[in-house]
Amino acid sequence: MASATPIAFAILFVFFFFSFLFAFPSASSSSLEVETVARESLPMDGDVAWVVQVSDLHLSAYHPDRAADLVRLLTPALRAIRPSLLLITGDITDAKNKRRTSTRQDISEWIQYKSSVEAIVNHSGIEKRRIFDTRGNHDKYGVPHVGHELDFFSVYSVSSQLGRLSTIQSISLVIL
Ligand SMILES: *[C@@H]1O[C@H](CO)[C@@H](O)[C@H](O)[C@H]1NC(C)=O
């Protein structure tokens, strides 16, 4: 029997004080400000909340097999698990040169990411609004600040495509 459950997710986006977010390793934790900036509710199917998290994809201009593997492995997994949420946590991209001796953003890695997510959404049945992604440190290499032209997360991430704040640093799940 399919029954609509009254349980729903509230997703609280919490972000940290800007100077901390964009990467000063020496920033003291006293500069940390936590603030709830948005909430979203998502209906749940049944009483169990399945959450799938994939992390550290390190999509690379030099290893296109990583994006291909992501689509190949995750699509059937999502089709079987039908999770309420898919969390994609950084590092999304590798952001290294070929010999891995230096770091920089590479737009082709972000384009790979966007089209991989699109293929996964197209073929797994997951709704895009159930996907939440966050940056890792590699996704910030060489990015002076949020919104800079090298801040590709602000353009290619699911979070930014859906108009969520692109300074999301953590997500809290609350069953209401
Ligand atoms: C996903 O589906 C949309 C809409 O049908 C289509 O425009 C897009 O090219 C597809 N993308 C991929 C990567 O399959």
UniProtKB/TrEMBL annotation:
It comes from the Eukaryota. InterPro entries: Calcineurin-like_PHP, Metallo-depent_PP-like. One of its GO terms (molecular function) is hydrolase activity. Keywords: Signal. Residues 1-23 form the signal peptide. The keyword Signal applies. Residues 51-144 form the Calcineurin-like phosphoesterase domain. Gene3D superfamilies: 3.60.21.10. This is Calcineurin-like phosphoesterase domain-containing protein. It comes from Canna indica.
